[in-house]
Design goal:
The protein is mainly alpha-helical and 120 residues long. 55% of the residues lie in helices and 5% in strands.
Length: 120
């Protein structure tokens, strides 16, 4: 979702701006930084840094790691959940946040609240 915003997807960009205008705090994890920076095209780095620096950061601590491990044990084989997605989901759940993603099939966790921009 982040890379789509950075590359100008009009629907996602508009939804993100509405959050910003409404002073809704948004957050990212270091995992998101890593995933996005691994896929950037040459010259996209400054815009990506600006995007991330405008958000709060959810720190991945021991509680988050334990939750991510539980997600991997429960959903790894059955749903193909990978470590990065388990960590991001666990960070959202342990912080009481909603997750905004375009890859909902990667996040089958029953206790994870997904953000619905149209519902806002």
């Amino acid at each position: 979702m982040i890379i789509e915003i950075l590359r100008g997807n009009p629907v996602l960009t508009r939804a993100g701006r509405e959050l910003d205008r409404g002073a809704v705090p948004t957050y990212c994890t270091g995992v998101s930084w890593a995933e996005v920076f691994a896929g950037l095209r040459k010259g996209e780095e400054p815009v990506a840094e600006q995007f991330f620096e405008a958000r709060g950061e959810v720190i991945i601590d021991g509680a988050t790691g334990r939750q991510a491990g539980a997600y991997l044990a429960r959903y790894g084989r059955s749903h193909g959940v990978q470590l990065a997605d388990a960590l991001i989901a666990a960070a959202a759940v342990t912080s009481g946040l909603q997750l905004w993603t375009l890859n909902r099939r990667h996040f089958p966790m029953a206790d994870l609240r997904l953000f619905e921009p149209a519902a806002r």
